[in-house]
Amino acid sequence: MTSAVTTAIPDRSFRLDGSRIGVLLIHGLGGTPNELALVAKGLNRGGYTVACCQLAGHCGTEADLLTTNWKDWANSVDAAFDALKKDCDQVYVGGLSMGAILSIELASRRHDDLAGLLLYAPTLTYDGWSIPWYAFFLKLAMKTPIGKHYRFVEKEPFGIKDKRLRARIAASMASGNSAEAGILGTPAESVQELWRLVEVVKRRLNFIETPTLILHARDDDVSSLKNAEMIARAVRGPAEIIVLEDSYHLVTMDRQRDVVIDRSRQFIEAVEERRLRRRSSVTEPAAFTIG
């Protein structure tokens, strides 16, 4: 796989301006910034400046995605973070599924620049209830010349518990409009790039001191709750898990998206309050008396 990044794909990234507290949101593998649009709008209503970036090779075709690797995706995150950092004093970074893993990867390198992490259904491994029992054998087969050309096709329930929304997502995928709902099939080589990213992030988890909020569905069809629990146990900094009882994998779009928005805002408010208290205690002059 080459590391060349296609330039023919229209950029679907967007930004909603607010205060000098910023939030960068990152979509998942084969996904689109639209996955995070509702959360972005909700956080922006809370006063924050929110940017949703488009990862290299995404929102195009499977062939476009195959021109990129995980380092290209990480470079997309770096560029979006730097752009947001220019206008914001504090920046929180979060993402959905692989986007959450890319958020951790960024924090492992630039922890002094990040105020906090917002991890939505982080995916270290595909082990949700909809993943077939023979997935382990597929992983082995993908290392063969024939297996490397395999593609993982999205199937019911498409990460969505809400049936109306699920039907709309399925229709968008089937139409070939990848900018709206992502690609229908993910090439095996791109999945292998995710695994390479995951291996890097696993080795760095215990160096993460950034305050972390994880929102994960108990019935996640793609990645089980074990993913969130492993991250929370491994990181060095404070970490909280919010378990969602009425959602599947795409928690930023599904039935409890308002809970995701509210808890994310509360997390940012709490971290900012602690930061301001610390700054106040450092700058406040010591009391003294004159005898």
Strands of the biggest beta sheet: in what spatial order?
1-3-2-4-5-8-9
User: Can you count the helices?
Assistant: 10
Report, as a whole number of angstroms, the end-to-end distance: 76 Å
Quaternary structure: single chain
The CATH homologous superfamily is termed Alpha/Beta hydrolase fold, catalytic domain
Count of DSSP strands: 9
Average pLDDT over all residues:
88
Question: In terms of per-residue confidence, which ranges show pLDDT below 50 for 5 or more consecutive residues?
Answer: 1-7, 285-291
Order of helices and strands: EEHEHHEHEHEHHEHEHEH
Please give the domain count.
Answer: 1
- Percentage of β-strand residues: 15-25%
Would you give an account of this structure?
With 291 residues, this protein is an alpha/beta fold. It has one domain (14-283): Alpha/Beta hydrolase fold, catalytic domain (Rossmann fold). 41% of the residues lie in helices and 16% in strands. The model is unreliable at 1-7 and 285-291 (pLDDT under 50).
Quickly list its features.
single chain, alpha/beta, 7-stranded mixed sheet, 10 helices, 9 strands, 41% helix, disordered C terminus
Topology:
Layout: E1 14-16, E2 21-26, H1 37-45, E3 49-53, H2 62-66, H3 70-85, E4 90-96, H4 98-109, E5 114-120, H5 135-141, E6 151-153, H6 163-175, H7 178-181, E7 185-187, H8 188-204, E8 212-217, H9 226-234, E9 239-244, H10 257-283
Parallel strand pairs: 2-3, 2-4, 4-5, 5-8, 8-9
Antiparallel strand pairs: 1-3, 6-7
